[in-house]
Amino acid sequence: MALKEVLVAIGFGVGVHRAIFRQGEWHLQAPWILIFHIIAFASLSYAIFLLKSEQSYIKLFLIAQITATYLSSLFTSIVAHRLLSSPLSSFSGPLPAKISKLWHLYKCLDAKNHLLLDDLHKQYGDFVRTGPNELAIFDPGVHQAIDGTGSKFRKANWYDNLWPDLSVVSCRAIAEYEDNTLKYVEQLESLIASAASTGQSINASDVFYWFGWDVMGEVVFSKSFRMLEGREWHIAVTMLHRAMKFLGPATPVPWLAHIGFKFLYRFSIVRDWFAMQHVCHQCLHERIAGDNGQTDIFRSLIAEAKKNGMTDLDQRWLRGDAVLAILAGR
User: Would you state the pLDDT for residue 2?
Assistant: First the structure.
């Protein structure tokens, strides 16, 4: 490969990182970034085979060299920035975590992220760099700083899994609807008391899960999922459980989830995520159609959306909030 071609490939790799990827957030565009690179490399291959007169194996070797040089320079630039010039470079943490969140993904495959974070806390202290652009903060004051009134922090990238729907609801508002949930507390108490009186064992994890979802259904839609009453799982919860087998491990790397949504939508665990969202959307439509001023999260949101003429943007906000609020019961 000629020196000119090497320099051009290096220039493109470094330039793409510094001029594009360092500007803003790109996790939502991950599928399109992948598609763009596939098209670019395919176009490069076509051009080389069309314009070069060498034998085919030499052309293939040239394509491989250019591709490897571009990717090497791109990732070298990314790693150098994350280790040396990132605003978080002064914070301590595992070296692989500073380079890529894929390390965190690998460590979470056994669904024991809480134990991993506890070990990191013991090793590195209250402020741990757990990703190229992420800190895990163990100081108790962080909750008020991030989630308190007047906070300017935005939601984590994980919530962009709702895209194209949006979300504005804060789970802090749920406390306003405490009176509406008392009947579910009584149902929970009755279920436990009944089992205790007959010596029957119950799965506490299941029972409290049912309680959480029934409460969230009431608070969000003024409609219970009736799991405590029926003592069985609602289909939306079952689908969410299956979907979390993919979304759970992908939590540290939201861009990977978006690639999965784009290319793996035929896989059942991805379909279940979209199906669960669809059930939430149906509940929302029923809530809007039967709106009579019920005291729930959507009372003021629906009123404001109707005032705006229920635009497409309003509907996206409502759908996103419907899913997010229900996930709080998870």
Answer: 65
Q: What b/e sequence results for 273-284 when a residue is b if at least 16 CB atoms lie within 10 Å of its CB, and e otherwise?
A: bebbbebbbebb
Most confident stretch, 40-44, 300-304, 308-312:
40-44
159 exposure class (CB count in 10 Å sphere: 0-12, 13-18, 19+) = middle
Token pair for 54: 């060498």
Q: Taking the CA of residue 314 as centre, how many other CA atoms within 13 Å lie in the half-sphere pointing to its CB? A: 15
Query: In this predicted model, what pLDDT tens digit does every residue of 267-278 receive, in sequence order?
Result: 887 888 888 888
Averaged pLDDT of the chain: 82
The secondary structure of residue 156, as a DSSP letter, is P
Mean pLDDT (whole number) for 98-107: 89
- Please identify which residue in the block is written with the tokens 């470094």: 14
Residues 6 or more apart whose CB falls under 8 angstroms from that of 242 comprise 268, 269, 272
Q: Tell which phi-psi region holds residue 203, choosing left (phi > 0), alpha (psi between -120 and 50) or beta.
A: beta
Inter-residue contact 273 to 246 (CB < 8 Å): yes
Tell which wins on pLDDT, 155 or 41: 41
Q: Determine whether 87 is exposed, middle or buried from the number of CB atoms within 10 Å of its CB (0-12, 13-18, 19+).
A: exposed
